[in-house]
Amino acid sequence: MQENILKPRGTQDFTIENESLYRALEDFLIQKAYDYGAKRVDVPTFEETRLFVRSVGNSSDIVNKEMFKLDVKGEHDYVLRPEFTASINRMLVENKLYASPDLPLKFSYCGSVFRFERPQAGRFREFHQFGVEFLDNKIDFLTSLDALCLLYRAGQSLLNREVELKINFLGGKQSRDNYRKALKDFYKDKIDCMCEDCKKRYEINVLRILDCKVDSDIEINKNAPKLSSYLIEEDLQAFNHIKEALDFLNINYKVDEKLVRGLDYYTGLVFELYDPLNRELGAIGAGGQYGNLTSEISNINFEGIGFSFGVERLMLSLSEQRKEELLKNVRSGLDYFIVDLRQNKDLIPLEIADILRETSRSVSFPNMNKGLKGDLKMADRLKVKRVIMFDDYNPNKVVIKNMSNREQTVIDMTSSSDIVKYLIESEEK
Ligand code: HAM
Fold first, then answer.
1. Residue 123 in contact with residue 83, Cβ under 8 Å?
2. Which of 83, 146, 305 to mutate to test the pocket of ligand 1 (most atoms within 8 A of CB)?
3. What is the mean predicted confidence (pLDDT) over 136-143?
């Protein structure tokens, strides 16, 4: 006996219902981003490895341990994308979009990303992100706030309940240099007893030690110097300005000084959004500001701010009621179902279906083996509006059954185009 072939660990099949929900979420989020002026773009599913090494960074788990490398006969060094931000910035540079006079540029995107993580609740190896990146020569206060508001408002209106926003401010170069030095001093005599990852982080990006999930390291991190004590005046003011605006807009947030994010490119404001009812899923969306990403991959100096939602985590957080509301906007059911029960069949049903489909009406047939009862039950399950029947009890006639009130109309079998004309004219408005 053949062994069944199963999907790879950490991946998912989106059968009809999940696929519809995914599309509904995607539509909702792309529209929401459009309300903030963001237009949708798309980038390749795989990129050169060095794009992510230079941007997401060597100290991140994503680059260090989780990239799906492609085996393409040694010709190229490609990986499946582990995130979008680096690709969007590459797109900006490669297509010279930075030359646009219309700044900030605002992009939204949605698609699959790949990380070789240990699968668990809300953690997949192939998952989907919806996100935005706002890009400019210099990211200003309004643009930062727009990105943050979009994450919060979209999360809140999708889940239809309060969400939890955590924010922190990593500061510009000078603040981060000061802080890095303080952290290096602090960990100098402790690093030998910390985990292997932290030892590497100590050398490459000491800030990332704060993000360590190993219990004994978490204990050590409790006494680490606080970032806020090392922010220069300008950064402190920028952070205060953001906090005041969030208060003004009634956006609830918590400052979390340990929030440094798992990607190396962040430089200013960073943030994560949680669903308090599904905290075990981790952040449902996260992002922040980056100052040097384009200069790490090109000669262009541009800045950006953005975030990504984990679409699967959103799907897991939605209440049944919210799912139904979102699914209402998705095209479902069928306009027509054609049942031919005659002994001697002809091609008229096929011709009618063909003409109806040309007018964007959806039409399907049951298989030929069922009786009328089975066909009608199937029509109900498929939410068919009208069934068109051909049978030997009504020779040269067509029976049209309205499935909502079960009323039947019998018309003469004329030409297919006349039958379709009648069908369209008699449709319920
Ligand atoms: P990230 O925090 O790595 O950031 O991922 C963003 C979101 O993707 C997370 O908050 C989570 O909802 C979801 N996510 C991450 N890993 C998984 C997984 N294994 N399974 C399911 N969902 C997952 C970024 O990717 C940045 N590019 C965000 C960004 C955009 N920063 C600036 N612009």
1. no
2. 83
3. 96
